[in-house]
């Protein structure tokens, strides 16, 4: 009797695992609004094809991912924000923290940074405890976080500053250097230029 019960339990577990696998393999689709957005993004205003994958937040549940030109999923919709692709990498946000995925949807850097920048020349600026460093395309820290600001000027030269140069808004800062201020009285958003440190330096990887 005990052997039969154990056999039935084992069979049930196998069925549940199989159903879970099928659910994971089930094609992910955009909402009707998402499909309309995709159709409107196939070409730019000059009629030229837009670059893909396309980041989009129009999956069921309001989740964000990215799709290919034919509507198939490139980045699984599990994030609360996905940025545009640059250097075959896109920033993703989950729980208020940022990481990176590639165009095949692989999570290259798990979300754990408070602020990140787009990849330029194979490097991305990231924030670690209020200091900026650089990671490479694999997520490896190649310049330790010790600057106020750092950005790639080429594949081996980087502009650095001791002064922090954040943009965005309070609670949603970025490295753009453009401060956004919202007036609650009129609901108008103003983009004000952030003062840049004129005494910048240049460093290399060595």
Describe the structure.
The chain has about 210 residues and is α+β, with helices and mostly antiparallel strands. It is about 15% helix and about 40% strand. It has 2 helices and 17 strands. The chain has helices at about 1-25, 30-40, and strands at about 55, 65, 75-80, 80, 90-95, 95-100, 105-115, 125-130, 130-135, 140-145, 150, 155-160, 165-170, 170-175, 180-185, 190-195, 200-205. The strands form 6 sheets. Strands 4-5-6-7 form a 4-stranded antiparallel beta sheet, with no helix packed on it. The chain has a 3-stranded antiparallel beta sheet with strand order 1-2-3, covered by helices on one side. A hairpin with a 4-residue loop joins strand 11 and strand 12.
Task: Summarize this structure briefly.
With 206 residues, this protein is α+β, with helices and mostly antiparallel strands.
Question: Which key terms come to mind for this protein?
Answer:
single chain, 206 residues, alpha+beta, four-stranded antiparallel beta sheet, 2 helices
Fold blueprint:
Blueprint: H1 2-25, H2 32-40, E1 54-56, E2 64-67, E3 73-79, E4 81-82, E5 89-94, E6 97-102, E7 107-113, E8 124-128, E9 131-135, E10 141-147, E11 149-152, E12 157-161, E13 167-169, E14 172-174, E15 178-183, E16 188-193, E17 201-204
Antiparallel strand pairs: 1-2, 2-3, 4-5, 5-6, 6-7, 8-9, 9-10, 11-12, 12-17, 13-14, 15-16
Question: Roughly how much helix do the residues carry, as a percent range?
Answer: 10-25%
Q: What ranges have pLDDT less than 50 throughout 5 or more consecutive residues? A: 1-27
Major beta sheet summary: 4 strands, antiparallel
* Overall geometric form: globular
β-strand amount: 35-45%
Number of strands: 17
Radius of gyration: 22 Å
Distance between the termini: 71 Å
Mean pLDDT: 80
Query: Helical region count?
Result: 2
Strand ordering within the main sheet: 4-5-6-7
* Secondary-structure element order, N to C: HHEEEEEEEEEEEEEEEEE
Task: Quickly give the structural class.
Answer: alpha+beta
């Amino acid at each position: 009797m005990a052997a039969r019960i154990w056999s039935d339990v084992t069979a049930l577990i196998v069925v549940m695992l199989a159903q879970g696998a099928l659910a994971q393999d089930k094609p992910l689709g955009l909402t009707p609004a998402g499909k309309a957005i995709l159709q409107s993004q196939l070409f730019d205003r000059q009629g030229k094809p837009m670059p893909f994958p396309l980041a989009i937040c129009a999956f069921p549940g309001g989740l964000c991912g990215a799709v290919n030109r034919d509507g198939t999923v490139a980045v699984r919709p599990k994030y609360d924000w996905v940025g545009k692709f640059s250097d075959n990498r896109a920033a993703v946000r989950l729980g208020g923290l940022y990481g990176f995925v590639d165009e095949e949807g692989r999570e290259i850097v798990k979300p754990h940074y408070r602020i990140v920048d787009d990849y330029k020349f194979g490097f991305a600026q990231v924030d670690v405890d209020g200091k900026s460093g650089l990671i490479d395309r694999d997520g490896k820290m190649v310049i330790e976080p010790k600057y106020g600001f750092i950005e790639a000027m080429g594949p081996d030269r980087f502009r650095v500053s001791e002064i922090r140069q954040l943009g965005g808004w309070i609670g949603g800062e970025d490295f753009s250097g453009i401060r956004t201020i919202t007036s609650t009285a009129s609901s108008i958003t103003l983009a004000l230029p952030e003062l840049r440190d004129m005494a910048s330096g240049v460093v290399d990887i060595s």
